[in-house]
């Protein structure tokens, strides 16, 4: 039986936009080809034929007035442009505080161009001539990466006074500075911070962190607590965060 698609489905698919892309490119043929390829992929495409117009559209996108905001998801930027070149444009966009992914295009393709492009805040770099499939693949990858990092930025963190723990990123800052913890230290701290003031016995900690098959001594817990105190506490001999509860074990805060 032939596969039939309901007309509503077709219309729905063509109306769903994957993201809004700005293409800043002075060569008309490339600009139109790129716009067409991305449009066919389901992106909403805006174009600018020079740096000035590009800047106008890109910064308007970052406008704090929601009615004015264009909310771009990706910018494709040619290096050599009239009025404002691609590098300056990229720098200006980043200066505005925008984290929108930027893909730079260049006819030259020298290593220096690539390095400078990435230094001024571009996320990826493509040398002309390029195929549309390559371009579309790079755009997809950039958008995915950006969406992922935005989601991570929204992940909850654990905070206690001056200690902040980022569960998704496996990192900890103390008094605003990055601190390197071993995986076990990190997991102990995460458990403590997720359960403030709860008292844990050494056996409970071993069960939770090392697992029921752990054959070592419960002194292992004391050693890890000591290491953690050295990293977290201002005065490890008089801890304020990792407290000993005599006869029971440890608690946090
Ligand atoms: Ca150009």
Instruction: Return the string of H and E elements.
Output: HEHEHEHEHEHEEEEHEHHEE
First-to-last CA distance: 67 Å
Q: Tally the beta strands.
A: 12
Number of helices: 9
Approximate strand percentage = 15-25%
Strand order of the largest sheet: 2-1-3-4-5
Mean pLDDT: 86
Backbone shape: elongated
CA radius of gyration: 26 Å
Compose a concise summary of this entry.
This protein is α/β, with parallel strands linked by helices and about 250 residues long. Helix content is about 45%, strand content about 20%.
Topology, pairings included?
Layout: H1 7-15, E1 20-24, H2 28-40, E2 44-48, H3 51-61, E3 74-78, H4 86-95, E4 102-106, H5 111-119, E5 124-127, H6 132-153, E6 158-160, E7 163-166, E8 171-174, E9 177-179, H7 183-194, E10 199-200, H8 202-210, H9 219-232, E11 242-245, E12 249-252
Parallel strand pairs: 1-2, 1-3, 3-4, 4-5
Antiparallel strand pairs: 6-7, 7-8, 8-9, 10-12, 11-12
Helix pairs in contact: 2-6, 3-4, 7-9
The protein binds calcium ion (CA).
Calcium ion binds at residues 26-27, 78, 80-81.
